[in-house]
């Protein structure tokens, strides 16, 4: 019996008559990376060389090629999975990674989210409605300014207050000071107003640095973190979530949108596989350009049954507003988190009011 | 006196009349990420908000926008530099990162290559000619098969024998066994044939894993490593080179080619800035699609005087052959490393002969 293999689907922008040949070259590129006729070892040709399973011409004239890739090449390492899926062919503009399917054993080896949707609901106490989320902006603000925002957002009852993804260790407001101020403020507000708001700081740097950031923050009771897997490397997310079982990781798509990996494959599947509990993506109609179907596909992959991995919480974001909450609830249902940032902050003096309106709009029953 | 700022140049695929407006939105996206009118703190607007310095219409109808970005947002962290340069706007298909310039202080803070061209020449004893490099393929081979290749390549006098970038910790040939076998073989061959060939294993996984891999390999005398910065995260390269001053890091472009960052900016400048001693890139006329000018620009940025950083060694690769050596020498001069992999291996029984031909072709004086 042959061993289970990874299935990777690629879109090839080549003449239809060239598609089968191009797919064979791709199978070589993404596995043995040398002429098969120069390989003397039969096992390598039979098992390690990627196989072209199907090549299908699409109505738009491009072709979809499905390759099967040996799991032994992936070594249960997240970075290596990205490498085998799209390492070299990312450099070939006629190739796009469309989809990926992993065998159950490999899915279990990565393990997916520790918390997932249920865990995030447990941590925030938010049940049977979308979670609410906002961002602490702008970078450059002082810890006191951020704490004031935290207090207003927590009082309003927003579930998760995250650092903007541009926060790292700015000299004017370093990680340790910022996290201490924000977390203390959120805990105080939770006690004062009966909330269960979470503060999620943004992780930066290397795995070792993130490890120290998590330890420092966990000491203060922080239970959720923002991480950009394409900036820090997907293996870093994978390692951190293996070590920290009782916190949630919210994945940010920075540096990830333009890699010619279809967003549903990258943000819908791969980030979840590596352990993201919630996945932020740019919703249609905002500052970014994904269309409605792409966004629905991301959310569907985040939540679909998949080898027993916990579902991840889809987080449509990127220029959303309180006015769009009903539409977002219709589009994504209850199992999502709505992230509104700048559109709350622009209310300035009316920030608290606008934040309450956000919370109320999400809590309101959706008209049928 | 205002503080020195990063300069980032973007190509905007928008109507000429929209370019100035689009550039202003980009400046917001890549800094404060919220409406400026909602920012109350004057310092943030004056210093932290990115500035549009110039917008220039190009003959092709696109526009080049140069933005200046506050260094305080970067925090001397490599991942955060990528984030501020191209984090969110990587998700906006009309935006491409074309070029980046950093102030001297930031360049010194990152520090660039530890070895650079001079260090690689010292390590290999290869002076006043291009260095030679080949790759151990295919993944799936046994340690004994790889050792046999190592012996033939070292005997032929190839300067650097690197793992193929698909090598990680494959169960059939794990890192520790592979590195021990290859390094011992290369050392033995060096002693027997009077060579100074280096073996460069491929690093995989997280920073912590790579740290252990480097320690293990250094214990065996390994002095060069292959690393894919866009897979592991650029901060990992930056951290490893800060810790290991006396080894060389050869950067592989996997997952890095398709990010709409112009290759000369990513492979020419940023990889060098973060510490790559040698930078592999897909040369024109091979399996990849960069044109000749792009390749020349990569090599030029690798080697140009830049804030006192050591020059990095450009490594044209990706389907090169012995027959192209004279052309490659004309194109890139002596300060480069020529990487030929599959085209040696396809000689099979005549591998040693073909490897010697490679070495001889590189050593031969270039016709004027």
What attributes characterize this protein structure?
elongated; Alpha-Beta Plaits; homodimer; 15 helices; 4-stranded antiparallel beta sheet; 4-stranded parallel beta sheet; TIM Barrel; 368 residues; alpha/beta
Describe this structure in words.
2 copies of one chain form a homodimer. Chain A is α/β, with parallel strands linked by helices and 368 residues long. Chain A folds into 2 domains: 5-110, RuBisCO large subunit, N-terminal domain (Alpha-Beta Plaits), CATH 3.30.70.150; 116-363, TIM Barrel. In chain A, 41% of the residues lie in helices and 17% in strands. In chain A, helix 11 runs parallel beside helix 12. The longest helix of chain A is centred in the middle third of the chain and has 19 residues, at 175-193. Chain A is elongated and about 70 Å long. The termini of chain A are far apart.
Topology:
The structure is a homodimer of 368-residue chains.
Chain A: E1 5-12, H1 19-29, H2 42-48, E2 51-57, E3 63-70, H3 78-86, E4 95-101, H4 104-110, H5 116-124, E5 131-136, H6 143-156, E6 160-163, H7 175-193, E7 198-200, H8 207-219, E8 224-227, H9 229-232, H10 234-243, E9 248-251, H11 263-274, E10 278-282, H12 292-303, E11 313-317, H13 325-332, E12 337-339, H14 342-345, H15 351-363
Parallel strand pairs in A: 5-6, 5-12, 6-7, 8-9, 9-10, 10-11
Antiparallel strand pairs in A: 1-3, 1-4, 2-3
């Amino acid at each position: 019996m042959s061993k289970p293999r990874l299935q990777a689907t690629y879109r090839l922008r080549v003449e239809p008559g060239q598609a089968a040949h191009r797919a064979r070259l791709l199978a070589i590129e993404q596995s043995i990376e040398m002429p098969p006729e120069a390989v003397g070892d039969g096992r390598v040709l039979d098992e390690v060389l990627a196989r072209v399973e199907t090549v299908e011409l699409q109505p738009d004239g491009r072709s979809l090629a499905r390759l099967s890739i040996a799991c032994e090449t992936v070594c249960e390492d997240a970075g290596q999975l990205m490498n085998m899926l799209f390492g070299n062919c990312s450099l070939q503009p006629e190739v796009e990674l469309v989809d990926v399917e992993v065998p159950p054993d490999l899915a279990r080896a990565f393990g997916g989210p520790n918390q997932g949707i249920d865990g995030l609901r447990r941590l925030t106490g938010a049940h049977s409605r979308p979670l609410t989320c906002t961002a602490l902006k702008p970078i450059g603000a002082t810890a006191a300014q951020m704490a004031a925002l935290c207090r207003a957002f927590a009082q309003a009852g927003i579930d998760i207050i995250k650092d903007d993804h541009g926060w790292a260790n700015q000299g004017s407001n370093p990680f340790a000071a910022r996290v201490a101020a924000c977390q203390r403020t959120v805990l105080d507000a939770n006690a004062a107003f009966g909330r269960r708001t979470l503060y999620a700081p943004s992780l930066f740097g290397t795995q070792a640095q993130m490890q120290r950031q998590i330890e420092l923050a966990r000491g203060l009771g922080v239970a959720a973190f923002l991480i950009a897997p394409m900036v820090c490397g997907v293996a870093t997310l994978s390692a951190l979530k293996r070590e920290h079982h009782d916190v949630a990781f919210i994945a940010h798509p920075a540096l990830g949108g333009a890699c010619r990996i279809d967003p549903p494959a990258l943000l819908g599947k791969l980030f979840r596989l590596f352990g993201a509990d919630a996945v932020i993506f740019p919703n249609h109609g905002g500052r970014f350009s994904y269309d409605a179907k792409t966004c629905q596909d991301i959310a569907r992959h985040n939540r679909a049954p998949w080898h027993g991995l916990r579902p991840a919480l889809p987080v449509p974001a990127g220029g959303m507003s309180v006015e769009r909450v009903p539409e977002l609830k219709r589009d994504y249902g209850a199992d999502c988190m709505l992230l509104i940032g700048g559109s709350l902050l622009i209310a300035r003096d009316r920030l608290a009011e606008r934040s309450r309106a956000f919370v109320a709009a999400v809590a309101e029953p959706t008209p049928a």
